[in-house]
Write a structure and sequence with these properties.
It is a single chain. By secondary structure, this protein is of the alpha+beta class. It folds into 3 domains: about 350 residues, Glycosidases (TIM Barrel, Alpha-Beta Barrel), CATH 3.20.20.80; about 70 residues, Sandwich (Immunoglobulin-like), CATH 2.60.40.1180; about 140 residues, Galactose-binding domain-like (Jelly Rolls), CATH 2.60.120. It is about 20% helix and about 25% strand. The protein has 11 helices and 33 strands. Strand 29 and strand 30 form a beta hairpin. Helix 8 packs parallel to helix 9 and helix 10 crosses helix 11. The longest helix has 19 residues. The radius of gyration is 27 Å and the shape is globular. The two termini are about 45 Å apart. It binds 4-nitrophenyl 6-deoxy-alpha-L-galactopyranoside (JFZ). 4-nitrophenyl 6-deoxy-alpha-L-galactopyranoside binds next to loops. 4-nitrophenyl 6-deoxy-alpha-L-galactopyranoside (JFZ) binds next to loops.
Length: about 600
């Protein structure tokens, strides 16, 4: 294999060039339209990764640190930590969250409060926790100020049910953590359960002590939730973010909380759970479901909260600790898909952190100390996952995260049409690695032994931001094509995002320049029935979408589906592919709208004969 002396690959994107003309016709199915289309043979459609519009953020300046820092520590700590998964000899079921013990076992408020009186974390050391986060490479910290049990882990003047007034500890751990974060250069943030409160008679969720019919939720919001949030935004310095949970019942209530945050700390970020999963994103970024992971990259800021074992609050029964390698691989996967990793510790009642947590985080920290350049400040990579690992991107630098070392000492990288100036191990820049090209692949020769068996990072210095060939979608012989966010190429304001109900869709598109495309490798010529699946509230019924292949287009109305997260499938016409070949299929709004076109989930092209 010829060494790669620094020749440059042709890196100009090849425009779509029709090299042969055949009729591709949408057969009239729903609306009259002009039937004429050209088979476009796609020599190469190069997409400039660096120019793909970044995730649409509410405020890029406010988001800047979040997008750079990528990795944070979550801390769940409260009276439930003392119960440690057991109450009066009864253990919570395996794999259930220990911080939910009061609700799981319907512990009466009176008895839980009595137990909370005894909370006395004499071994608590804020600097030890913050330094653990820092040593792990975590840049922000989110600690539970009040969880669903209603107990304030800070000195609240709103309710005496707090760690200073209710326990012999008499100290304010959030103040001590805020100060320790300041000393360590870690961004301090708080978790606040703004709706769920099993202690307050008007809070949401305790139906074993209180009659739901007699609750006045507005009283709870005005007399406890909002005043405590105001305390946290006033007395603990600048907060990186407020991590709300189990979102508010109505968008109006959620907006009131967002307004309160921004009125006191305009730069403070708000997570997605300020609103319920039945509401559009009301915060600055999306939260995945707990321990959630999107299958593909997203184009809106997102974060996934994850546990180190299987519970957030400490449980003496849960010893299913993730290994450092699993944590490192998850961190790389999350970052490669454009997200942040909020990784949890559940300290014990006395304030000490479980030793297995410390061991794992210390090992992750050793990896981060040598490789954090490939994490901080990187952007999502649109290169697919490879058998050997994943990639992250920073400008014209591509980081290859090699999880499994090739027996033939050759890392193969397909889909990249860049010139490669040089390659080296991240931990040894002086040691250049041979690079060659072969059949459109970039080949990097690596040392015999793998320097870091969890993840060895190779740095490719490219001629410019990665330019990636689109993935050609192949068809299933029976069912045809399934086109969704995973293989879509978006442009303009069309964004791949979490749909807040556990799935993923494409939205935020409002004008014809906001497009979604797929590149098809049609192996069976013939007629295909097109079906489109989307959600659209009734207010969006004026919308129309255009589906094109080559120069031919099909226009259809957007039909309301009920609500923004209620998906339905509609016929969208039929298409004839006269011969096998490569085609580009594009979907876009027909004109400019004052609302999103739709929440697009998928297109299917099913062979008709
Ligand atoms: C919530 C809390 O109930 C839990 O105790 C912990 O604080 C966690 C970080 O957040 O748990 C959730 C919230 C949302 C989902 C699952 C668990 N979800 O959307 O699937």
């Amino acid at each position: 294999m010829r060494p790669y002396p620094l020749i440059r690959l042709l890196c100009e994107p090849s425009p779509i060039r029709p090299t042969s003309f055949d009729n591709v016709a949408f057969i009239v199915h729903s609306r009259p339209f002009i039937a004429a289309a050209i088979l476009t043979t796609l020599s190469s459609i190069a997409l400039t990764l660096g120019q793909t519009p970044g995730p649409a953020a509410t405020n890029p300046d406010r988001m800047a640190w979040f997008r750079h820092d990528k990795f944070g520590m979550f801390i769940h700590w409260g009276p439930y930590s003392a119960l440690a998964g057991e109450w009066n000899g009864q253990q919570i079921p395996p794999h259930t969250e220990a911080e939910w013990i009061m609700q799981r076992l319907n512990i009466p408020v009176k008895e839980y409060r009595e137990r909370a009186h005894q909370f006395n974390p004499t071994n608590f050391n804020a600097d030890a926790w913050v330094n653990l986060a820092k040593a792990t490479g975590m840049k922000y910290l989110v600690v539970t100020a009040k969880h669903h049990d209603g107990f304030a882990m800070y000195h609240s003047k709103v309710s005496e049910y707090n760690i200073v007034d209710w326990t012999p500890f008499k100290r304010d751990p959030l103040k001590e953590l805020s100060d320790a974060c300041q000393r360590a250069g870690i961004r301090f943030s708080v978790y606040y359960s703004h709706r769920e409160d099993w202690d307050d008679p008007n809070g949401f969720g305790n139906n074993w002590d209180y009659d739901p019919a007699k609750k006045d939720f507005s009283q709870y919001l005005e007399n406890k939730s909002k005043p405590q949030l105001r305390e946290l935004l006033t007395n603990y310095g600048p907060l990186g973010l407020v991590w709300f949970d189990r979102g508010m019942d109505t968008p109006k209530h959620a907006a009131e909380f967002a307004d309160l945050v921004h009125s006191l700390q305009p730069q403070c970020l708000i997570n997605g759970r300020i609103g319920s999963y039945k509401q559009e994103l009301m915060g600055d970024y999306q939260d995945m479901t707990d321990n959630g992971m999107p299958s593909g990259g997203l184009e809106e800021d997102w974060e996934t909260p994850q546990t180190l074992n299987t519970t957030w609050g400490y449980s003496k029964f849960d010893q299913e600790w993730k290994t450092p390698g699993v944590v490192i691989h998850r961190l790389v996967e999350i970052v490669s898909k454009g997200g942040n990793y909020l990784l949890n510790i559940g300290p014990m009642a006395d304030g000490t952190v479980p030793q297995p947590s410390i061991a794992t985080l210390n090992e992750v920290g050793r990896w981060m100390s040598r490789n954090s350049e490939s994490i901080y400040g990187t952007t999502a990579s649109t290169l697919r996952e490879f058998p050997w690992g994943r990639t992250t991107v920073k400008g014209s630098t591509l980081y290859l995260h090699v999880f499994s070392w090739p027996a033939d000492r050759t890392i193969r990288l397909s889909g990249l049409t860049n010139g490669v100036n040089s390659a080296h191990l991240l931990v040894d820049p002086s040691h250049k690695l041979p690079v060659a090209s072969q059949d459109g692949n970039i080949l990097v020769t690596v040392p015999v032994s793998m320097p870091d068996t969890r993840d060895t990072v190779i740095v490719l210095d490219l001629d410019r931001p990665p330019v990636v060939d689109p993935v050609f979608v192949t068809q299933d012989s029976d069912t045809g094509f399934e086109l969704n966010y995973l293989t879509a190429v978006t442009s303009g304001n069309a964004k791949k995002r979490f749909n807040r109900d556990g799935g993923f869709h494409i939205a935020k598109w409002t004008a014809p320049e906001d497009t979604v495309s797929w590149f098809l490798s049609v192996s069976s010529a013939g007629k295909y029935a097109i079906k489109i699946r989307y959600a659209a509230p009734k207010e969006w019924k004026d919308g129309q979408y255009i589906l094109t292949v080559g120069s031919h287009e099909l226009k259809n109305p957007v039909k309301p589906t009920g609500d923004w997260y209620q998906y339905a499938t509609f016929d969208a016409g039929t298409i004839l592919f006269p011969k096998a070949g490569q085609y580009k299929l594009e979907l876009k709004p027909a004109e400019k709208y004052s609302h999103y076109l739709m929440y697009f989930e998928s297109l299917t092209l099913e062979p008709l004969e």
